[in-house]
Fold this protein.
Amino acid sequence: MSGIGYDCGTYNLICARRNEDGNKIDCVKEVNAFIELNLEDQNRSFFNVVKGKVPLIERGDKGYVFGQAAIDMALTMPKLELKRPMSDGCLNPKEKDAFKLLQLMCHSMIGKNVQDKEVVYYCIPANAINTETNVDFHRDVLADIFKSYKVDGKTLVPYHMNEAMALVYAELGDKQFTGIGVSFGSGMVNFCYAIYATEASSFSIVNSGDWIDHQAAKATGETPVFINKVKHKIDLSKQPTDYIERAIKTQYHLMIEHTVTNIKKALQTTEKKIRSEQPIGIIIGGGTASPNGFVEMFKESIMAAKLPIPIGEIRKPDDHLYAVARGLLVAAEAAQT
Amino acid sequence: MPATVQTKIETKDGEVTINLNLTIKLDSTISPKLQYNKDIEVKLDGTEFIRPDFEDNSQIIDFGKQV
């Protein structure tokens, strides 16, 4: 069975495909970032030394290092500017030069082993309710990126899907693809209520992982990069051990409250369409939902909000970081059968 | 395609000058490949919505870790 699920996120790029035996889904992951080095100065010797050890390319008098290696270098060499093609869940129109490098990153993660005209499903956010976003631009540029894949004469056929809907595809097949997906990414929180794999309500909020980093950094005087490192290790079910953990936990509380308030609003304003006798399950995904205790914090907030529909099980899949890509793969495979 | 045209006609010393200002609202559905005559000045405004042109790519590098 062929097909590719591609989660192009603000922080992570994740590509999901079925293995050759068809009994397992393999995911490839990298960080959606790069650094640019001017090779006309002393960077040339450094660049030549790391060749073959980290993902990089040379174009003219510039060298580019990609992914986690770029993050590591930017952390140890503050003069290097880390570039991220996306911000707040969408491609950043101000980073046009970065898009051709994103093209290379996306194609390289897919690799050469594809069938001609293989379907790739990629995710897009819903329109944000708290700021202006360029979702159409994001959708069209990503489509152009996948259409420009031409390796050994083979091409891809791209389709898009709402990111939170992908969670429903990944986890709620046994519920007739009916339920709620909430993806807590780095740039955005995405919500979708699906009935029989059809979108009944969706929205996004630009206040997620990056927002927590910046707000907690402001409150503590630390850098967002440092906060992000602490955030990856925090346990939200325990009492904070210092002021940094306290600041991060506070921001998590605020983000979840804000999200749940807007979920309630969305369900109330589309109430004509959204009626359910049966309890509706909620699937949580995304890297910002990673800390231990996150699901419990979210459950408490949902129960306190008294939503207009009965809520069933609230759960985070074991592979919650990859669940969006897995759902996109389900859609891609369904498109080719 | 949303477009507006402004014209300004000036006469001086028996010559007539027509200034034509054509504004095209660019959005995400419009490619940046604007065909124009070299004698016509084109100024792009609101370029944030111009989609880049991607050439076919066949370059693949070793990128991404199996998880």
Chain B has a mean pLDDT of 69. The interface with chain A takes residues 27-29, 48-52, 54-67 of chain B (CB under 8 Å). Strands of chain B lie at 3-12, 15-24, 65-66.
